[in-house]
Amino acid sequence: MELIKKDIINVVPDESLKFLNDVLSKRIKASDNIKESEYLLRIGTVNKFSKGNISGWIGLAKSKKTFALTMFVSALVGGLKLFDTFNANASSSVLYIDTEQSPADVQKITKRVKIMVGSEDKLFMYGLRPLSPKHRIEAIKILLDKHKVDVLVIDGVRDLVMDINNAVESTEVMTLLMRWSFDYDLHIATVLHQNKGDGNSRGHIGTELNNKSEAILRVTKDENDSSVSYIEEVFGRGKGFDKFSFRVNDNGLPEIVSLGIEDVDLNVAPF
Question: Is there a domain that residue 27 lies in?
Answer without folding.
Answer: no
